[in-house]
Write a structure and sequence with these properties.
The protein is α/β, with parallel strands linked by helices and about 550 residues long. The protein is built from 25 helices and eleven strands. It has a five-stranded parallel β-sheet with strand order 2-3-4-1-5, with helices on one face. Helix 12 runs parallel beside helix 15.
């Protein structure tokens, strides 16, 4: 019979246990020193090695030829424990044996000396499932068991245990295994099985397993059954149900742009495709949680359960969306999920999407914060959107310029443009009708957050807008920076974040026929001129 991978590659010694050195090192030291306690408590999430370490410990205390705290794995006791032939090592499932009668039977049995082994070891899995009466019956024996008895209690919900139980045990906390460690183990297992697996595929399995090695191996088993030579990222995505998650990106874009129609049409399409609305809400909550972490942390690492192309797409969304909008989405989807137990799920999702696409319809604090931030930039966006449309005659004089050409010199950031139907329009012509750009200080603040040196170069500068062109009046140093494509892209992104529009950049050149300031005259010269006009003789010395 085929043996599942998580059983076939279950660790046999402490050194094979992945990602739990805080447990394995301590247990080995106790075994080497002979300081063996009478009761242990192993806690942690599922699939992290609690039962595995309990079985290794049960073999190690009874091994006939132990080696540096590890069981030899070859003696009759080690083989008997692995095969289940040694009746002195008992594994009990507290979920199905949670009554007081089961515990009383165990207590009576523990009073007898072991038949073959040195210690009688009781491994009670999911011990938090025991009833209160069963716990009370176990207390006295757990505190003062016979010298030949060792209790190992394992649980995923340690908070449900009585304080009197906790105080009688040595506690070991099992952590979630890092995705990198799980991926390395999966690649090793595939090597042992003669299989090939892409690193991205192994990482996707690791993050999907959420820190559990057993879950990762079980998922790998499913992928191997479908693989044709190599376990790829796409195969893993299809197996674990992550394929076709592009709708999450579509929802995010609809919310960002306020496209209510697009969001509702997408929801209807998913509903007609038998998508569960509760599951969709959970997926969106997890998706926006990842975006929130990417937005607030420099490197969220394994905190975001996404790899490969999906992670890169999430990073792009995080760059586009404001943090206030992301928090609004998280709050809205969590609220919707809690309401779906008593209301129509589809209707609740539709109402939630409409509120997210139209924040002014929502009165929650998150929506108000999002609206305040929008209002701080709304004047700029509104002014840009409502810029005066050129008259038809002027449109003929100055048709829409061609796309921006990468600059070579400051004067050529916006070169002489070649319209399709008339004479070239110079930078001076665009500058003549340009209007002051009120949002320029806010854009400089965004640039300062990106780079203090770049922000300093534009300090004291000004900007003007004419149609799709943003004309900058700045020192020579600022134009030297804009020669670099990366700096121009950063400037365009800062403008887009602030105004919601994408402008072409160019230098501002004041028109030559602009009215000059009146020349200041000395009041004394004016008095002398008036006196001469009245016939008064002025003698100069």
């Amino acid at each position: 019979m085929y043996q599942a991978l998580y059983r076939k590659y279950r660790p046999r010694v402490f050194s094979d246990v992945i990602g739990q050195p805080q447990v394995t090192v301590t247990l080995k030291n106790e075994l080497i020193a002979g300081r063996i306690s009478h009761a242990y408590l192993f806690t942690g999430s599922h699939g992290t090695g609690k039962t595995t370490c309990a079985k290794i410990f049960a073999k190690a205390v009874n091994c006939l030829e132990p080696s540096d705290g590890d069981p030899c794995g070859h003696c009759s006791m080690c083989r008997g424990v692995d095969d289940g032939a040694v009746l002195d090592v008992v594994e009990i499932d507290a979920a199905s044996n949670n009554g007081v009668d089961s515990i009383r039977s165990l207590i009576e049995e523990s009073s007898f000396t072991p038949a073959l082994a040195k210690y009688r070891v009781y491994i009670i899995d999911e011990v938090h499932m025991l009833s209160v009466a069963a716990f009370n019956a176990l207390l006295k024996t757990l505190e003062e068991p016979p010298a030949h008895v060792i209790f190992i209690l394992a649980t995923t919900e340690v908070h449900k245990l009585l304080p009197t139980i906790l105080s009688r045990c040595q506690r070991f906390d099992f952590h979630r295994i890092a995705p990198e460690d799980i991926a390395a183990r999966l690649e090793w297992v595939c090597g042992e099985e003669g299989l090939e697996i892409d690193h991205d595929a192994a990482m996707l399995l690791a993050v999907t397993a959420d820190g559990g090695m057993r879950d990762a191996l079980s998922l790998l088993d499913q992928c191997v059954s479908r693989a044709e030579g190599t376990v790829t990222y796409d195969l893993v995505a299809q197996t674990v149900g992550l394929a076709g998650r592009g709708h999450l990106l579509e929802f995010a874009e609809a919310i960002r742009t306020g496209d209510r129609t697009g969001a509702l049409e997408l929801l209807d399409r998913l509903y007609r495709g038998s998508k569960d609305m509760g599951r969709l809400c959970e997926e969106l909550t997890s998706f926006f949680r990842g975006i929130m972490l990417m937005k607030t942390m420099k490197d969220p690492g394994a905190m975001v359960s996404a790899v490969g192309e999906e992670r890169r797409n999430m990073e792009r969304v995080a760059l586009k969306m404001d943090l206030s909008a992301i928090l609004h989405c998280l709050d809205a989807f969590q609220t919707a999920l809690s309401k779906m137990r008593t209301v129509n799920k589809r209707l609740e999702m539709e109402m939630t999407l409409i509120r997210l696409c139209t924040p002014e319809l929502d009165v929650s604090p998150e929506a108000l914060l999002r609206r305040v931030e929008a209002l701080e930039r709304g004047g700029v966006r509104l002014a840009a959107a409502q810029a005066p449309v050129p008259e038809p005659a002027r449109m003929e004089e100055r048709p829409e310029p061609e796309a921006e050409i990468p600059p070579e010199t400051p004067e050529e950031i916006l070169p002489q443009v070649r319209p399709a139907r008339s004479a070239p329009v110079s930078t001076e012509a665009l500058s003549r009708d340009a209007e002051p750009f009120d949002a320029w200080p806010e854009i400089i603040a965004v640039m300062k957050a990106y780079s203090s040196s770049v922000g300093a170069a534009f300090t004291g500068s000004a900007a003007y807008v004419n149609g799709d062109y943003l004309l900058i009046d700045a020192p020579q140093l600022a134009f030297d920076l804009l020669k670099r494509p990366s700096q121009r892209d950063k400037m365009r992104e800062a403008v887009r974040q602030t105004t919601g529009r994408t402008y072409k950049l160019g230098p501002y050149k004041p028109p030559k026929d602009a009215p000059q300031a009146e020349e200041k005259t000395d009041p004394l010269d004016a008095l002398v001129r008036d006196l001469k006009a009245d016939g008064v003789e002025i003698v100069e010395k």
